[in-house]
Amino acid sequence: MADEEVATKAPESDATEAQNVSGIPGDTKPDQGAESMGEHCTSDRPTPGGETPTGEITKFHDIEVYITKPADYPHSPCKLLLLLTGGTGIHSTNNQLQADKYATEGFLVVMPDQFAGDPAPSATTTATQGQADEQPSLIEQVKLGVAGIAKSFTIDMWLARHTPEKVLPLLNNVIASVKEEFADAVANGGGIYAVGYCFGAKYALMLGSDLHKDVAAGQRDPATEAEEGMAKQGPQIKCGAIAHATGVSKEDMANCQVPTCVVAVEDDPLFPDHVRNAGLEAMKTKGLDHQFKVYTDVPHGFAVMGSYEDQSIMTKQTEAYDQMLAWLKAH
């Protein structure tokens, strides 16, 4: 993927930017850029008080999935939604609550473990509200910057284990099971809907693309040249919505063939303007139905359910969810 403009940043830049802390409490831009995934992609925010997940974890093709259903299913029809998470994975309480929220709106939600039991480092670390919102001193910022270099290598190693060659076959196996297990919901919606947050956003885009069959099967890096005459697999979803993507290239966006809603964060080093704008221009040029909004004064990862002391972030979290939900319902 060397020739693609991907939303990543070199780890060695972390130390030199240790003092450039974001104005959003708990949201350090150096950590985000250095790791190719932000702190909000690998660690949960405090869980909203009093809320408990209502779904269950089962397995499709030996792949763990969290499934949550509308209260009146199967007596009333619903639509099938594939929810692709950030690095915290399906055992994150916040991700489960996010899935449950879509279920209350009439979607049967399947949230697969994209990481085969290997969530991102620090995924189990949940800061307390006070710790998350406390601004570090200058010395602490420098120390965090140095520590961030070591952490970035850990993240890089994790990302190297979770490439399209590994993730796409897993997702295609889950989709095959979903089409059989919940054929009624798939048929009722005229296909499968998908939402993707952070890491999962890239794969929501890829599932909405025409992929060569060897790529879909995990037999070839999508950035390499296909053999002449290689057949393609059409989009596996009918509509998608993504929020604060990571690891996405302009080609990922340009190749998408299904209606797509894009939620982005202002000045996000993980989904920088030049990548995002080039991808959106490609969507516009080919006439793809799409929607796009940039949210200001929020951290990367803000759209995933979780508590913030700043009520303006909480308000925008709700706005982003409402935007994505409305997009899905309109299609």
From TrEMBL:
Stretches assigned to the Dienelactone hydrolase domain: 64-211, 231-330
Transmembrane segments: none
Compositionally biased tracts (Basic and acidic residues): 28-43
One Pfam family this sequence matches: DLH
Gene3D superfamilies referenced in this protein's UniProt entry, alphabetically: alpha/beta hydrolase
Single GO MF annotation: hydrolase activity
Sequence segments annotated as region (Disordered): 1-57
SUPFAM superfamilies: alpha/beta-Hydrolases
Stretches with biased composition (Low complexity): 46-56
InterPro entries: AB_hydrolase_fold, Dienelactn_hydro
Signal peptide residue numbers: none
Listed name of the protein: Dienelactone hydrolase domain-containing protein
